[in-house]
């Protein structure tokens, strides 16, 4: 569907025109992919005055996913290796007669920006800011269906792991096993560094798997995700190992579960990002967990695993329908471990049944 | 050995002083690690006028590898989340009375550079260039022994794969299997995206594994590497599947082998980078493979899998002893496949026996 990308570029062009730049240079990889449907490593997009160009260095090693030139997008491969596509694109913009070029100052390095300035000294460089990131927030049906399939794959991989014997295996091995299963079920690859935390490591966000082995009585926290056609989602669950959880484990689990549910229920179109965060956070706060809480309750997902919006205390903005986000509160007690529960959901109007849960693995406290 | 990091910082300080900046801000992760021994995600190093500071955002999610403060390095965790450690470090530099601050313009984005300029308007911002990358080129004994262990791990993982049945398995599965074995043998993780190419995909540098299955008569190219204590090495081999290679396969293999040997033999202290490239390249050239050759014959390895020096036609500079590099020529025939042979070696004087081969898996053409 090349027209999808053309439409996206047209929307970006409107924004650029509104802020006074007829041309824009997009270099951030996820943004280039969003606007072109896929491009070789290092490719940049010139949203030009007269035509749009996908510019990249022609190398033997250009990955197999060939750029799909569509209506209005021409592909320009640099003849010699080693050149910077961003610099070449600026040169082409100048050749098209552009007077100003909006670049992604949050992505371009100072060095590349300077090189662009030297090659096209007549071009006034402006900042396109997070314009493409903003366009990416609301997803279309196709994007959501990629996320839905990714979530299904992650659910399957996790479900299979739960049927296997866990005691005695290391965090590292469980993480590798999960990643293998993701690929088995059709993922492009993991959406994030798979996190497996046992015992005192459980409940830590982003915990890197170690050689610690699963023991009876442990909490076991797992966070994984699948990438499907470039779209990334995530799921996190916490289990208890052995037949009967301790009282403190049940209490802590129930608390985090209540917090996560409050966060999920706050996902309605029009809700302020910070209010979703507050809904989940105040459950933990009021139980006395005021310190050591994560910075945010969740975040957007899409072509990147952590993108706009941020569901955090200081975040500005309001949710729209068709925005996929995670809701992932957690509590970690140093030395003891903790609980983290993480879902990917799509915001939907109440009339449509409220938030659509993509990751459907049970959130009961399973004793494995 | 905190004194190692102190010595490295002292060498960088000399360079900065020589170019007129008493203070430097190092933000590129591998450079920060090189100068401090390890730091949380996003940490920056301020090489200060009065003291050195490792600055990072204090978050719950700070990874487990704690920064090791050593003599002369103080750790400064930002109290609130969301701040940019680079901006905070510039502020601290100004507070130390610095007049100018050298930053890594090839790493800092324009946006962060601007933010630094606003928070410390009195500070003259200079460019430290690739100073730390240059320091990293020659490795010490400790670094080389990490690479040696990594190479041993990669050899083991590859050796085990060769003992298993390959026909009928997909590139994707073989790649995952290799990565699991790397971790089994003690790697921190893969050093690069493991590449497995069969049949028409064989011999392509950086080929991303697909669902193509290994068939009788295929060439099978594999490139993998282990990260050990942060240090990354790689090995690449090509095999033939079935009992007897075809004549074209033997010829092509012998040619690439001769090219790779010529490259390895050119690794002597004092040799120009481009001459090493030329040595390997001219073997392929003179056999008529002038087009479609890779841009470079090899590259340095260390804390990054692709670092200085580049062994390429236009590269400037000469090899020193104790520089680890890859030698990895290859030929890929579109539609038919090809051969790639890749070793990691350390440059050594002839008196010490010449280049030290770290990846010792046989380079005979194995029929599997």
UniProtKB/TrEMBL annotation, chains A, B:
Segments forming domain Creatinase N-terminal: 8-138
Region (Disordered): 189-211
Cited SUPFAM superfamilies: Creatinase/aminopeptidase, Creatinase/prolidase N-terminal domain
Peptidase M24 domain residues: 146-348
Entry-linked InterPro entries: Creatin/AminoP/Spt16_N, Creatinase/aminopeptidase-like, Creatinase_N, Pept_M24, Peptidase_M24B
PANTHER family in the record: AMINOPEPTIDASE, CYTOPLASMIC PEPTIDASE PEPQ-RELATED
Protein name: Peptidase
């Amino acid at each position: 569907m090349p027209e999808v990308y053309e439409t996206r570029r047209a929307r970006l062009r409107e924004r650029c025109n509104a802020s006074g730049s007829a041309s824009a240079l997009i270099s951030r990889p996820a943004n280039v992919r969003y606007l072109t449907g896929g491009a070789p490593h290092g490719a940049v997009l010139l949203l030009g005055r007269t035509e749009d160009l996908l510019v990249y260095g022609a190398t033997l090693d250009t990955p197999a996913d060939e750029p799909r030139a569509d209506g209005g997008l021409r592909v320009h491969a640099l003849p010699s290796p080693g050149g910077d596509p961003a610099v070449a694109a600026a040169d082409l913009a100048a050749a098209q007669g552009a007077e100003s070029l909006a670049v992604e100052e949050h992505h371009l390095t100072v060095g590349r920006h300077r090189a662009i300035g030297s090659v096209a000294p007549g071009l006034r460089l402006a900042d396109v800011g997070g314009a493409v990131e903003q366009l990416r927030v609301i997803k279309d049906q196709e994007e959501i269906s990629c996320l839905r399939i990714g979530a299904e794959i992650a659910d399957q991989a996790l479900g299979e792991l739960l049927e296997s014997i866990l005691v005695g295996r290391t965090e590292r091995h469980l993480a590798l096993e999960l990643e293998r299963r993701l690929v088995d079920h059709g993922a492009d690859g993991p959406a994030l560094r798979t996190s497996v935390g046992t015992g005192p490591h459980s409940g830590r966000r982003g915990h890197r798997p170690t050689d610690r082995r699963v023991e009876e009585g442990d909490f076991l926290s797992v966070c994984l995700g699948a990438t499907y056609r470039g779209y990334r989602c995530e799921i996190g669950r916490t289990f208890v190992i052995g037949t009967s959880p301790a009282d403190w484990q049940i209490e802590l689990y129930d608390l985090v579960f209540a917090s996560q549910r409050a966060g999920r229920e706050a996902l309605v179109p029009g809700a302020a990002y910070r209010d979703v965060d507050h809904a989940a956070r105040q459950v933990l706060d009021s139980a006395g967990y005021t310190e050591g809480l994560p910075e945010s309750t969740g975040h957007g997902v899409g072509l990147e695993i952590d993108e706009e919006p941020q569901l955090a205390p200081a975040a500005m903005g309001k949710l729209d329908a068709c925005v996929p986000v995670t809701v992932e509160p957690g509590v970690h007690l140093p030395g003891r471990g903790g609980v983290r529960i993480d879902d990917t959901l799509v915001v939907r109007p109440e009339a449509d049944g409220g938030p659509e849960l993509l990751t459907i693995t049970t959130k009961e406290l399973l004793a494995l």
